[in-house]
Amino acid sequence: MERSDRKEKMKMQTIKIPVEKVVIIEKFYPRKQTSWQKIYEYSQAMKTGAEFPPICVNKRENSFILMDGRHRLEANKNLKNKEIYTEVYSNLSDQQMYEIAIKKNVVHGFGLSIQDRLEAVLKFRKWKYSDEQIGKLVQMPVPKMKELIGRRLTWTTTGQEVIMPRAFEGLSQKAVSNPDIRGGRNFRELAKELNAMLDYVKPKHIDEKTESLLVELKDKITELLSKT
Fold it and tell me: Which of 23, 29, 196, 204 has the fewest Cβ atoms within 10 Å of its own Cβ atom?
């Protein structure tokens, strides 16, 4: 399996590139939340002449795929800058690209959230990285990483693994099967959480084939809630 931590160095150059050429592909960019307040702060600082580190991209054909620097990129767009200083790699594999993105985002700016890190864990596991390698990449002790995965990992009706947000971690497979973790919450509380979870999962992970089942389940929950 190809890994970006091999001895050979990947070629990189720092140059100015057109802002409009930078594209964001969500599956390669590990930070899911964007702070418009931070973008505003960056743009105001740029107006005063403040210097920022270059963003980081992977060049594939005529596109530059962003790996690090979304807030800096958006700040430049707000200022209508035509070009941006950029670290440019070329033709990296998906794994190399994502690994660089994790290494840079885990410490830059806000740092990655727990949710972002756990989703990265699943991706690296699919690529057969060891838990020790993953722990170093996401900067999380392996025991803590395994504990959080156990509390938040669940599966959709399509068989896809999903990391639930913290608010829903009581509904992960492990938590639901363990009454001590549920803490004796009553049916109404659990039903409300389940309804919220379905709303979260639906647009991302449920295919059209199961759409009618989801609607039926939500209607049933609503009916039961009205009787409690």
Answer: 204
